[in-house]
């Protein structure tokens, strides 16, 4: 099961932590690889979603940023492509703003098309205490699409070590036809040469789930 894989990955990535390089901001030219997935703790333990993403960072610009997302079923997926700048970078605050064009894929997607508005707000209270909030308003572009609003994550983290962060967070979703759904979570992030491995224990409707959010930043000379 995915939970056992998570436990094994956590052990593997924790071992070389003391030898890893400290986390740094993105270099002027870099590729960013992101993989995310989740699994409910309750039966039948089917994967709740998949996401794969690649972004190229050019200084303060991100372009292209392409990827794929589905809610655990290939017949209802979404391909997306986006771009955007780092609008503001200060000592304590960074605001990055991307916009994505989204195309539904699969028989259950009904050819839906959207715009995703993707603001990222990073706050640095101290060297150890940080916060990140990412919102997701969804703007429909055709009749089969519906508006929505998500808090992808709003979290506060504390660095116990240069390569180990723990924290608490909140995410939520509101669709055009559904109620507001709140999903608080606990998070642990381990960073080493292999990338950043973020593990969530998240409360969801009907129980809880584990998420793995992996990111690798590859600098270009």
Explain what the structure shows:
It is a single chain. The chain has 221 residues and is mainly beta. The chain has a domain at 27-34 and 46-188: monomeric porin ompg (Porin). 6% of the residues lie in helices and 65% in strands. It is built from 1 helix and 12 strands, in the order H-E-E-E-E-E-E-E-E-E-E-E-E. It has one helix at residues 2-14, and strands at residues 29-40, 49-58, 61-70, 77-89, 93-105, 113-124, 129-140, 148-161, 164-175, 181-192, 195-204, 207-219. Strands 1-2-3-4-5-6-7-8-9-10-11-12 form a 12-stranded antiparallel barrel. It is globular. Residues 1-6 and 8-24 have low confidence and may be disordered.
Low-confidence stretches: 1-6, 8-24
User: Number of helix segments?
Assistant: 1
State the shape: globular
* Annotated CATH homologous superfamily of one domain: monomeric porin ompg
Strands side by side in the biggest sheet? 1-2-3-4-5-6-7-8-9-10-11-12
The name of the CATH architecture of one domain is: Beta Barrel
Largest pleated sheet:
12 strands, antiparallel, barrel
Strands, total number: 12
- Name the CATH class of one domain: Mainly Beta
Q: What fraction strand?
A: over 45%
What is CATH's topology name of one domain?
A: Porin
Protein structure class: mainly beta
Mean of the pLDDT scores?
Answer: 89
Q: State the helicity in percent bands.
A: under 10%
Radius of gyration, CA atoms, in whole angstroms: 18 Å
Taking the alpha carbons of the first and last residues, their distance comes to 39 Å
What string, H for helix and E for strand, traces the elements in order?
A: HEEEEEEEEEEEE
